[in-house]
Amino acid sequence: MASILIAYASMSGNTEEIADHIMSVFEDYEHSVTLDEMEELEPQDLLNYDAVLLGSYTWGDGDLPYEVEEFYEEMEELDLAGLPAASFGSGDTSYPKFCEAVNLFENRLQDCGARIVQEGFKIEMALNVKEDYERCTAFARTFLDNMNSPNRIAT
Ligand SMILES: Cc1cc2nc3c(=O)[nH]c(=O)nc-3n(C[C@H](O)[C@H](O)[C@H](O)COP(=O)(O)O)c2cc1C
What we know:
- This is Flavodoxin.
- There is one protein chain.
- The protein has four helices and six strands, in the order E-H-E-E-H-E-H-E-E-H.
- The protein has about 160 residues and is an alpha/beta fold.
- It has a single domain, classed as Rossmann fold (3-Layer(aba) Sandwich).
- Strands 1, 2, 3, 4, 5 and 6 form a six-stranded parallel beta sheet that branches.
- Helix 1 (about 15-30) packs across helix 4 (about 130-145).
- Flavin mononucleotide binds near residues 15, 57, 90 and 91.
């Protein structure tokens, strides 16, 4: 059983819903999951887990939400040395930089030395139809598969 942190930012609930769904999949596999709003955490908290997922919606013109800017900046100091990690989030394809916050967190995790085990999960607005939930379930399951396979390279 792994101890996994899912930290997220969500203004209108879409990213939170993704976080909830990922958590439910992890719990089906009997992992211990901590779900928290990113703005309530310090970057150092990431060091207390066997794996981390960071989720965020995108704001402005491909920007991070204001409430997680500090967390993102302070991550620069962090050494995550091989920690299995991935990012996820909700966005809107009518904006030129769709789900850019997912890319920003993925890159920041990588810069901190985390092992990105899975390409970021991006969803148009909310989990709506069955296929959205299935994609999200597949993302969570693949994360678990890759988490314990050090040689697996993120696609
Ligand atoms: C002012 C504003 C700017 C936004 N900018 C972007 C953007 O640059 N890229 C994007 O993919 N989505 C953008 N969005 C869409 C939100 O990311 C989207 O509504 C998302 O589902 C919100 O997630 P949440 O429910 O977790 O807060 C923007 C929305 C607003 C209101």
